[in-house]
Structures are given as structure tokens and as C-alpha cells.
């Protein structure tokens, strides 16, 4: 089963890290990712840019409304995600626990099963 491991935290806190702090966190995360990759179980890993770079299209009764920034104000923002092929939910939880230890900036990890609707064409 494919799982999305969604990372949330206050992006303002994460964006205050020095380059050295950010690089160290990315190195720790890479070690956890490498463990899953060596098992052939790691899919795409995505780090989102800050919500200040986001654009939201909101459906209305007329023409869609285009807004700068995120759709909703929240204390934690969606920072990125991992895709992992885990045999059980327990395995996905263990992976998320390892990520949480490696990433002091993560406030929460949401673990959600995935269904491939359409595999896509961009060949990442």
C-alpha cells in the first residue's frame, strides 16, 4: 500500500533556521529516506516552498477566484510530503516516527493511504 507522509509545522519557525541548521536537518532526513530507498519503498519526496509563494484558485458560483497565498490561515502549514510503499500501517507509522526524530521542525506528520488515480506523464 502506498502512503503519503505529510509534514506540517509553523513555516515561520522553519524559515528562521540558518543554512547550517537547515542543511543538518536535510542530512538527517536523507539518512531516514535512504533506509526506505534501499528497501525499494521510497517514492517522491517533496518540499514545498512557503505559503507566501502559493496561489489559490477558489471555486465560486461565477468565474474562479485567484488568490495570493494559502486558502486558509492555520497555525501549522503543509511543508512537504514523502511517498512510501509500506506493507502495513505500522510500517508507515515507523517511517513517520523516524522522520520526526530526524526533523526537529516538524510539528506533525499525517499518514494517509494513497490510491493512484492517474500515474502522470512527467517522469520525475
Automatic annotation (TrEMBL):
<protein>
    <recommendedName>
        <fullName>YCII-related domain-containing protein</fullName>
    </recommendedName>
</protein>
<comment type="similarity">
    <text>Belongs to the YciI family.</text>
</comment>
<dbReference type="InterPro" id="IPR005545">
    <property type="entry name" value="YCII"/>
</dbReference>
<feature type="domain" description="YCII-related">
    <location>
        <begin position="1"/>
        <end position="115"/>
    </location>
</feature>
<dbReference type="Pfam" id="PF03795">
    <property type="entry name" value="YCII"/>
</dbReference>
<dbReference type="InterPro" id="IPR011008">
    <property type="entry name" value="Dimeric_a/b-barrel"/>
</dbReference>
Amino acid at each position: 500500500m502506498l502512503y503519503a507522509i505529510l509534514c506540517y509545522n509553523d513555516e515561520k519557525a522553519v524559515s528562521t533556521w540558518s543554512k547550517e541548521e537547515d542543511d543538518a536537518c536535510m542530512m538527517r532526513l536523507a539518512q531516514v529516506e535512504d533506509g526506505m530507498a534501499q528497501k525499494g519503498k521510497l517514492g517522491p519526496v517533496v518540499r514545498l516552498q512557503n505559503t507566501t509563494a502559493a496561489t489559490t484558485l477558489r471555486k465560486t458560483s461565477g468565474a474562479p477566484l485567484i488568490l495570493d497565498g494559502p486558502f486558509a490561515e492555520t497555525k501549522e502549514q503543509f511543508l512537504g510530503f514523502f511517498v512510501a510503499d509500506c506493507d502495513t500501517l505500522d510500517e508507515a507509522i515507523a517511517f513517520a516516527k523516524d522522520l520526526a526524530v530526524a526533523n526537529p521542525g516538524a510539528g506533525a506528520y499525517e499518514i494517509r493511504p494513497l490510491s493512484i488515480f492517474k500515474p502522470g506523464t512527467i517522469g520525475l
